[in-house]
């Protein structure tokens, strides 16, 4: 009788635990920079828009959960996640070994190879030797910065910026000699603008890590949910439609 009672208590505890786990994710708060188009940006009316936003809505619809968005400066996005400001980052975050120590990543949901962008009249050589003494613009807390620190930190002056908008502004104002940023972002914010004919890509893609959604280390069930949702929207063709809308390439 005692063993049966203990077994019933244990079973009840498991059922309660599963129920609580399910209730935990009826609503998910998503964090991103809201300033990294076409992945995420702020519209004129103050709402967030972009590939990350539309993809998030499609995944949340499949999961039958409510999703909302919080804008966060990129350099503080992981600390903000850990502090509970939001539940998951869906914001073009490159998957790296260093970040894996701090967050739990999903499957790759997109790729955004980085490229060098320089004035059209400039020398196309971006080797460490050629860039010695020159100023390279790069966003803080990015995989592009990690790449530049490794290969150019001892020769070039790395000028750090809080946003891609600030980097591009200084490139146009000739306050930096070159910048390194996402190919997709550069296409939209530089080459598809009136100033686009004044600049050029040089060299091939660099820093081609996949992009992942990121949660706190303990939220493995949340990541599993979004991995399932990602697979679903990809299978149904929703992913391709959203990617085409925002000019995002395949991540195969």
TrEMBL record:
Residues making up the signal peptide according to the UniProt record: 1-22
Pfam families per the UniProt record, alphabetical: SBP_bac_3
Positions of the Solute-binding protein family 3/N-terminal domain: 27-249
InterPro entries: Solute-binding_3/MltF_N (IPR001638)
Keywords, in A-Z order: Signal
Transmembrane recorded as keyword: no
Stated name of the protein: Solute-binding protein family 3/N-terminal domain-containing protein
Organism: Kiloniella litopenaei
């Amino acid at each position: 009788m005692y063993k049966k009672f203990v077994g019933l208590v244990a079973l009840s505890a498991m059922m309660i635990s599963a129920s609580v786990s399910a209730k935990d994710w009826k609503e998910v708060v998503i964090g991103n920079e809201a300033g990294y188009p076409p992945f995420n940006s702020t519209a004129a009316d103050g709402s967030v828009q972009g590939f990350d936003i539309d993809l998030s809505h499609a995944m949340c619809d499949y999961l039958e959960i409510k999703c909302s968005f919080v804008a966060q400066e990129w350099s503080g996005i992981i600390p903000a996640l850990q502090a509970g400001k939001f539940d998951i980052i869906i914001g073009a975050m490159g998957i790296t070994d260093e970040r894996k120590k701090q967050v739990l990543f999903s499957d790759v949901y997109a790729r955004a190879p980085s490229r060098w962008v320089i004035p059209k009249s400039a020398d196309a050589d971006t080797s460490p030797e050629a860039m010695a003494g020159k100023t390279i613009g790069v966003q803080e807390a990015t995989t592009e910065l990690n790449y530049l620190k490794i290969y150019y930190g001892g020769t070039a002056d790395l000028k750090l910026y809080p946003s891609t908008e600030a980097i591009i502004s200084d490139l146009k104002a000739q306050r930096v000699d070159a910048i390194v940023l996402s190919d997709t972002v550069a296409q939209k914010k530089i080459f598809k603008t009136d100033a686009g004919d004044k600049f050029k890509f040089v060299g091939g893609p660099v820093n081609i890590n996949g992009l992942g959604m990121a949660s706190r280390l303990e939220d493995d069930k949340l990541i599993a949910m979004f991995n399932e949702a990602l697979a679903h929207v990809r299978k149904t063709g929703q992913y391709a439609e959203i990617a085409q809308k925002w000019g995002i390439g395949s991540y195969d």
